[in-house]
Each structure stands twice: as structure tokens, then as C-alpha cells.
Automatic annotation (TrEMBL):
Residues spanning the signal sequence: none
Protein's recorded name: Pilus assembly protein PilX
UniProt keyword annotations, A-Z: Membrane, Transmembrane, Transmembrane helix
All residue ranges annotated as the Type 4 fimbrial biogenesis protein PilX N-terminal domain in the record: 10-60
Domain PilX/PilW C-terminal span(s) in chain numbering: 91-172
TM annotation in the entry: 12-32
Top-rank taxon: Bacteria
Amino acid sequence: MQLQFWRRQQGSTLIICLVFLLILTMIGISSIQSSTLQEQMAGSARDYNSAFQAAEYALREGEVYLQQATLGSFTGSGGRYTICGDPASTAAGCVPPSWRNKSSTGWVTQSGVGNVNSQPQYILEKYPLIVDVNAPLDADTVPPKIEMYRITARGYGVSENSMIVLQSAFRRD
């Protein structure tokens, strides 16, 4: 009697082991997918950080240029442009290069940044002179004018698909 009971139980052990193995396989595949996704997210974060730091470097270099005693003319060459107010204006220096197109020319390229796909770049745009609203109003004096500039910098990350664009306004005294 006991021998027949043993023979009926042998097949169920195989089925239970196969189900258990299937569950372990599914857990393993899920863990692999999760770790792969985490590695991709870490790589993207590193790429973004590299691009952001490169753009900040170019932005700082543009600010250093604007702190010089004398500036070149803002005629559309050497990364120096003028904000003309009219978007349709084609006057010299009024049409800055597109920041969206990586191959656009007219940018000042900085060197010395490692671990990036392309070196960071910047352009400078000069606003028309602005009246200082904080100046005292006197009937016999003309309010002073303020020189304002916009710096647009773009930095690239490790991959060719990452680009960060930063802008800052700069007041020159």
C-alpha cells in the first residue's frame, strides 16, 4: 500500500520545482531590467551635468569678456550681436545664430573643457541703451543710461544628443 502512494507523489515534485524555478527566473529578469534602467538614468544624469557645467563655463567666459575695459563692435562678428527690437530686421548684427542648430556659426567657442562631445560656446547680444529708473529725476540733468547685455551659452554633454542652453542678463557699469 505504501509503495503505490510513493509512486503517485513523484510527478508532483517535478511540477512544484518547475513552478518555483519559473518564479525565480521572473524575479531575476525583473532585477536585471531594473538595474539596467538605473544605469541608463545615472548615465543620463552624468551627461546632463556635464552639459550644464560646460554651459556655465561658457556663460562665465562671456561675463569675463564683458568686464573688459573696451569691447569690440557689436556688428554680428566674433559672437557679438545687437538686439534691434524688430525680429524681421536684417541690419548688420541684428540676426544672431540659432541656438537650436548645433552646426550654426557665429558663436565664440571655448576650449579646455574635457569629457564633452563639443566645446561650449556663447554669443553676446547688446540691448539698446536703457534709462536708469533708479536715478534721481532732476529738471536740469539727463538720466543716465545703462548698458545691458544678454549672454547666451550652450554646453554639450558626453553624448552628441545633449545640449544645455543658458542665458543671463549682464549690466555693464
